[in-house]
Amino acid sequence: MRSCPLVVASRGDTAQVVGAGRRHQLARSAAGESVVTRVARVLSAFDQDHTELSVAEIARRAHLPVPTAHRIVGQLAAEGLLERGDGRVRIGNRLWALGACGTRALRLREAAMPYLEDAHAVTRQHIWLYALDGLDVLVIERLRARNAVSNLRLKVGKKVAAHATAGGLVLFAHAAPELQDALLAQPLRRYTPRTPATPEQVRVCWQATLRNGFASCEGWVEPHVTGISVPVRGAGGEVVAALGLLLPRSDSEPTTLLPVLLAASRGITRALTPQRVAS
Length: 279
Known about the structure:
By secondary structure, this protein is of the alpha+beta class. The protein has 9 helices and 12 strands.
C-alpha cells in the first residue's frame, strides 16, 4: 500500500511533498502561507454542492492563482487524493477511504443508524442526525420519507444554518460560551421573517432549548417547514449530536413526535456507552 504524502522540513521559499517514492517541490506564497494551508484550501473547494470542479473553479473557490491550483491539483491527483477526467476534478477514492477510517462522525453514524431507522418507521418523516464541526453544523446522516416535506436539498456532509435550525439550536445551546460568542460574532442570515437574526434573539432561543430539553423552529428557514430536535449525549453525558425531524408546518402539534425522538436519542447514548463485562 502506498504511503500517505508527507510534508517535510523546508528551506527558503520551497517545501517538499513526498509520497510513493515521488518528491514534489511546492513554492511558498509571498505571504509565507504554508503548503498544507494551500492544499487544505484546494480540498475545501469541494462540498456537497460542488463535487466536480474545473481547475479554474478550484482556484477561484480556494483564492489561489490558477497556476498554483493547477500544480497542487496535479500533485494530489498523482497521489490518488484527487481524480481528473473530462476537464473536471473530483475527490479521489484514496481520500474517501482515508476519511472513512474511524472518524468520530462515522462511529456516531454507525451507533445511531438502528435508532434512526426505528424513528423513521414510526414518524414517517425526514429524520436527521447533526454534529458540530467548529462553528459548522453538519448533517451526519439522514433518512428521507415519501410524501413528507418536499424540495429539501440537505445531504450527508451538508452544512446547515447554526442559528436557524433546530439541530443547530440544540448543539449550540450546549456548546462552550466561547463557541457561542464566536457564532454570534458572525452575520446571522434572516431566511424568513420568523428567523432569529440578532444575538439577543438567538440567545433567547438557546435558553428555551435548555429549559425545554428540545428545540422547535417553525418556518425559520423554509416557510412551510417545521424542525424539531433533541440532544444526543455521549457516554460521559456531554452532547455529541442532535437528532431531529423535518415536517410540514401545517402539522398541528409536531411535539407529539418528541417521545419517539427522545427514545431514539437514549438508544444512541446506550450504543455509544462501553458495555461493562461482568467479572
